[in-house]
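## tool: complex_structure
## caller: assistant
## args:
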Amino acid sequence: MTIVLLLIPLSMVLVACAVWAFFWGVNHAQFDDLDTPALIPLSDDNAVSQCDEESAK
Amino acid sequence: MYVHRHSDGAAEVSVLVEGLRCTACSWLIEHAMASLTGVREVGVNVVGKRVRVVWEPQRVALSAILGAVARLGYQPHPLERTALDDVTTREQRDALKRLGVAGMGMMQAMMFAIVLYAGALEGIDNPTRDFFRWIGLIVTIPVVFYAALPFFAGARREWHARRPGMDTPIALALALVFLASVIETIRGGAQVYFDSASMFVFLLLGGRYLEMRARHRAANVVDALARLQPAIAQRRDASGAIENVGVHELRAGDRVVVSDGATVPADGSLISPACRVDESLLSGESKPVLRRRGERLIAGSIVTSGPAELNVERLGTETVLSAIVRLAGQAQQQRPRWATYGERAAGYFVIALLCAAAATALGWSYVDASRAFSATLAVLVVACPCAFALSVPAALARALAVLARRGVLVLKANAIENLARVDHFAFDKTGTLTSRAVELVAVTPMATHSAADCLALAAALETGNTHPLAQALRAAAGTSLPADIVDLHSVAGAGIEGKINGKRYRLGSASFALDGRASSDSDDIVLADASGMLASFVFREQVRAEAASALAALRMQGVEVEILSGDSVCRVAQVAKQLGVETVRARVSPAHKLDRLRQLRARGKFVGVVGDGINDAPALAGADLAVALGSGADLAQSNADIVLANDRLDALVDARVIATRTLRIMRQNIVWALLYNAATIPLAATGWIPPWLAAIGMSLSSLAVVLNSLRINISAANRNLTPRPHVDNALAAVPA
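## result:
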């Protein structure tokens, strides 16, 4: 049973990491718009291709 | 910041206030501001999160007024597009973070609680039990002290306003459960409730988050003035060159050029000879109107045959558009504030609960002092108004989500209840019952040409024109066009002229086409050549395909329907006949619309208004329930309780079914929560329910409420939307 003394603090560290990652995501606009990004691949506007060009450079 | 100066020296400004979200807040702000000397008038708009102040600058500084608001814990911002977006984004992110922390904390707390429950059944040694309790305490601390902060802040505000609302019982129950658990943990007592506390927070935050998202999505549209008025205008300078300037840089007396299809930036008089403007947003008039040199153009209207040049007369807050906006704002503030039934009930509920807990403690301390604490705790936990607190938000959140998926956005909290109560709907015509497009209903040819020939000629003349009439003509004519079209030119506000196969034709109003040889007042469009009239065309507004079935369905639900329009009598009557509506009022000004609504309400009707234009905005604000169609002006949406974002009227029928069902489910939830508490409180008080069982019972009752709320979608959703029939009426109506 002594293993729980290691595992429980470990799990809490993991949760802390998860909370940190979640906060990072929220602060970096990952959750601001959950609806439209799914439609981006369907539109043939230039925004995507511009990105491609920039990454290709 | 736009400071509007009154003639008597007073100033008026609207500010955005962060953290403003309930009637208690608005009461608090109103009192804090109104108590300052020199402040004349305070109007708080909770949904728009804005406060309108009228003050006397010589007696009190604006900074002092805003400082008073800031001291209450609300952050005032200048009312700008970016500030509004920032506040919304920050609020949404903040809520999401709290929800995330509550969710993760809840999972952890429950996991450790399972060990404790298993231990209670099968035996656990005290050091291990205490170890898991301390772990549970640690994971619950962020939930209570970070995630649940809005509840405590809300309870504090309600306390300041002396108006117990929903946050007070929540904060109290949470504090008691958490404190009791901490004491039990330290003391090594019978039971801890960290899992219940964190689940309580998570479920409540989840409901609020969904509600807020739905509200935000639609309230984005609120800043209508800034959106309707263009930000940039084209000014002609002294040398005659055109430069782009910000609208705020314009001064009275400037000359501004508005190109075809652009929005007029300011009120002014026309300098160029003639143009047509679409003022349907302001007047409800469905056809673009002709303006001649020297006549007024109104900011916010759209030039359909330009370019137009105008002399700026009035700007910003002095335009007709702003006046209409202010009128709408005043009507909005006249709305009676009413505390919801749930908020009041929860206030009584929590007082009754505290009395019951105190009585239990008192009773047991006489009978058996050692059991007093656990019995009191059992009462507090078992009667914790979780299920009760959830009963309304859970059903509402579910209803909002279901409605949003159907393209119905709910902007105000009372809207769902009001929608179910509405027994009289007044519809605007233009843009609401009819679509923007017109259709050709008849071609009356003179003897020399066939109808099809005339139609082909007319369509050829309209080649490349984007006017609704031109589009209707082309749609009716099909594709076969005469090849040789030359010398096409349009005369603004009158018609079009051109040569086809060497012959000159004119198409337009009768006086233009016949060059003054005939006087005709009708709205018909006439095709003529040098020798005289060839044919006349009759147009009709196209009634939305789904309008008839939607209105019929509403009548089936026992709702009275009427048309209330600013348009001409004959056109309104035509639409009414097509839709089978008997009560019709045409040529109604915005002020008269308000009168009509007041009259209906005096007769005991609960009135809903469906509209889209700005001229509807005052009427929308004065109705018991305001519904706006999504394709309409953004401004109308800001005053609306409900927005039909998919631009279909039949969504309203579905929404009403769902609203009725939501109310029923909400009532079931409340009855269930009350029954549960009524049954369990006596048992807990008499010591029959140990606190751990009380915690499970509380969780299950909450779960029952949430699951019941999920039913809102099941049968209400099964009604299929009526398919959009695709019939080309224009073609069918043209005689061969």
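## assistant note: DSSP finds two helices and no strands in chain A. Residues 46-57 of chain A have pLDDT under 50 and may be disordered. Handing back to user.
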